[in-house]
Amino acid sequence: MMAVRSCLGVKFGVSGLLSQLTSSTRHHGSRPCVSPILTPQHRNTSSSSTSSKVKVDLDQNTGVAVMHMQSPPVNSLSLDFITELCISLEKLEMDKGCRGLIITSSQPKVFSAGLDILEMYGKSPERCGEFWKSVQELWLKLYSSNMVTIAAVNGSSPAGGCLMALTCDYRIMADNPAYSIGLNETQLGIVAPFWFKDTLMNTIGLRNSEMALQLGLLYKPQDALKVGLVDQVVPEDQVLPAAVKSVNKWLAVPEHARQITKSMMRKSTIDRLTSNREADIQNFVSFITRESIQKSLRGYMELLKQKKA
Amino acid sequence: MMAVRSCLGVKFGVSGLLSQLTSSTRHHGSRPCVSPILTPQHRNTSSSSTSSKVKVDLDQNTGVAVMHMQSPPVNSLSLDFITELCISLEKLEMDKGCRGLIITSSQPKVFSAGLDILEMYGKSPERCGEFWKSVQELWLKLYSSNMVTIAAVNGSSPAGGCLMALTCDYRIMADNPAYSIGLNETQLGIVAPFWFKDTLMNTIGLRNSEMALQLGLLYKPQDALKVGLVDQVVPEDQVLPAAVKSVNKWLAVPEHARQITKSMMRKSTIDRLTSNREADIQNFVSFITRESIQKSLRGYMELLKQKKA
Amino acid sequence: MMAVRSCLGVKFGVSGLLSQLTSSTRHHGSRPCVSPILTPQHRNTSSSSTSSKVKVDLDQNTGVAVMHMQSPPVNSLSLDFITELCISLEKLEMDKGCRGLIITSSQPKVFSAGLDILEMYGKSPERCGEFWKSVQELWLKLYSSNMVTIAAVNGSSPAGGCLMALTCDYRIMADNPAYSIGLNETQLGIVAPFWFKDTLMNTIGLRNSEMALQLGLLYKPQDALKVGLVDQVVPEDQVLPAAVKSVNKWLAVPEHARQITKSMMRKSTIDRLTSNREADIQNFVSFITRESIQKSLRGYMELLKQKKA
């Protein structure tokens, strides 16, 4: 077994908490002001657009967009950030000039630290439900995308960050043993929901998923490659070039046939969430608002504060 | 990722088109005159029978039949050829003296080039439906066979040829890097139906299937071995001897227990098609008769003609 | 293919028959007198209890119990032995002081030889049904345990013995090529039921299971490791220490999250049996009481007698 267990408090191997502890500004409840992403600019060969947390560069010649996540410090998936990601994804999905998408991070050393724990701690059930709905939405948009999607994993990618990578068609990770990737929810005392589990099983199989999910395993890049959690490991400065090379390979396949095939492969997994969204939200809210879980999250946050001090 | 992408127009790595372009005789609509295969000849220790496109040698001592596909030039699966294959399979299945079946090719360099594109191009919906029903029938007969079935893959085996190999209990391939095997339908702009997908997933797992089907991957023998698409790779002249050795190993297992076990493993996959045959036919017909798909097939055929010229 | 086929009559590679041929005492129909296992002894740091065939040592400090199977000569799973195992498991499951369970054997060279053939030969349908119900019960208790379960496989483990190991969270096997493990039912002319099949598929995947079950494969430790049938292979005297190390690693994960995750992974497989227990019993009884199967079992038993003589 090549997997590497999560150590509580590892620098980036946590689900988004660290980001919030060091993040100075938050605007709960306010939806981000959406900047005009990807308005038609067909005279130019490329367009670039930036909302506050998501920067998208679309090459009109190749039809490939690169989406840079830039929500300091560690791309924690807050409601605001997820909302921006969903809006960007929807625009790209509807843009006929965009056929391929590379997702990467602008933040050093981290792809995405996963779901923002602060969205789950001390919040009202309504707010927790709203947050969870956005997480579902992000997964649905990514996992069912008609675009070729490549994860350029240029840093650590625990929990929800790993989930984002898992939704893509292909995953390339930087060969840096300081980085890790995995669904480490149990290490935080919480549980990855069934559709996280399904996505992982679809990628690394049932037995590997059983161990990975129960132990909350975080894999170093080479171990992630061995278990099939990522498809390719390259030197850190080669992650984006390799992603571009890869997306072009996928785009060479007749598009309509590829899209139907992708849909055929993922439909049953997607349907399972689509037909159970409300129940899944209720389930999450009732679990996360339990006193014991809140206490566990608080303990974890305090542990991190101590580590930082 | 060890897989090797399909190159359009590779000599044999196409789905049956090349065969028809170079084939001189075709008799659409006429069913083959079935020669009396495997009539009881219990005084002899072996029987040999040949219809126009299928030669079967049954060794009465061992109970093992070798089925040679000999539909020049590349064993494309036309309606006629499929019909002959089905008739041969049904006779063997009912013959109590036959317990094991080795499927191989008499044609040089190719196992089977897959479904005959000419059966899908410029044909009436009725004819397309008849063709598709025969493809279903071939798969059902092979995948649910009570016999031990071994694929002796002595040449390239794209698309429907790969499917035939996948239905067997065990696959042995010639170690010749000029050969390849895989479900490369997307490369032709068409889509492998759900039961092709199921058969592949049952063999190489979901994630490998997702990549193989979307990219239309053709694997060289050593790569096919690594991914589990074939079980054994041997020197070209050892394919048949290895298949004989293998079939005897499988036949050493108490027969009834083995058959029940095989049925238990495959039943749900078989039931899914059995209970959806008509809808699957309708789906195929409406897809393949679309103008855009017909245009795509025509373009592909013209590309091949140019390559040949 | 690394697997090693079963040889009929291999010393321990049989399903429990050998045990009964050499076992002198049997008390059919009488349930074992249950000794008071694990009554509260919180002043002591460990408790030890022994029923006639099951010895349990529980370390109150670590919360880890070691269950020694000691039903001479080869831990064949008779109705009596299974009943004792189930009672022990239920007590441990309800004991809040017990969080982890290591299952191992006190008998030399064998973990468990599997289901006791004498329970299946020459018995009334009622008795066969009672026996099968106990086998179901053992599987349900083990596969759905809230405890961390580790199989310390310190000897051969065919058929039902392999099943017991497969229910655990993690499997460690002694690196002795004289030992083997696998579901070899077909070699005896019988069929592993669907929930044996499901448990195997959940561990080594569909394709490996299809081969393993049809051929009745027994794997040597290193081959079992390669196919994923066991997770770790260690020198014989390190099996138990490695199991202790492993159970502590699993117990370090927040317990409630781990248990929910385990349940989520296994629920559908467990439900399939739970909702079909009676039909599965009827199916087993009608199969095993067939004259042809009884004859096959008798032939097998006589073969073993000759081997012994």
UniProtKB/TrEMBL annotation, chains A, B, C:
<keyword id="KW-0413">Isomerase</keyword>
<dbReference type="InterPro" id="IPR001753">
    <property type="entry name" value="Enoyl-CoA_hydra/iso"/>
</dbReference>
<comment type="subunit">
    <text>Homotrimer.</text>
</comment>
<comment type="function">
    <text>Key enzyme of fatty acid beta-oxidation. Able to isomerize both 3-cis (3Z) and 3-trans (3E) double bonds into the 2-trans (2E) form in a range of enoyl-CoA species, with a preference for (3Z)-enoyl-CoAs over (3E)-enoyl-CoAs. The catalytic efficiency of this enzyme is not affected by the fatty acyl chain length.</text>
</comment>
<dbReference type="InterPro" id="IPR029045">
    <property type="entry name" value="ClpP/crotonase-like_dom_sf"/>
</dbReference>
<comment type="similarity">
    <text>Belongs to the enoyl-CoA hydratase/isomerase family.</text>
</comment>
<keyword id="KW-0809">Transit peptide</keyword>
<keyword id="KW-0496">Mitochondrion</keyword>
<dbReference type="InterPro" id="IPR018376">
    <property type="entry name" value="Enoyl-CoA_hyd/isom_CS"/>
</dbReference>
<protein>
    <recommendedName>
        <fullName>Enoyl-CoA delta isomerase 1, mitochondrial</fullName>
        <ecNumber>5.3.3.8</ecNumber>
    </recommendedName>
</protein>
<dbReference type="GO" id="GO:0006635">
    <property type="term" value="P:fatty acid beta-oxidation"/>
</dbReference>
<dbReference type="Pfam" id="PF00378">
    <property type="entry name" value="ECH_1"/>
</dbReference>
<dbReference type="GO" id="GO:0005759">
    <property type="term" value="C:mitochondrial matrix"/>
</dbReference>
<comment type="pathway">
    <text>Lipid metabolism; fatty acid beta-oxidation.</text>
</comment>
<feature type="region of interest" description="Disordered">
    <location>
        <begin position="23"/>
        <end position="54"/>
    </location>
</feature>
<keyword id="KW-0276">Fatty acid metabolism</keyword>
<dbReference type="GO" id="GO:0004165">
    <property type="term" value="F:delta(3)-delta(2)-enoyl-CoA isomerase activity"/>
</dbReference>
<keyword id="KW-0007">Acetylation</keyword>
<keyword id="KW-0443">Lipid metabolism</keyword>
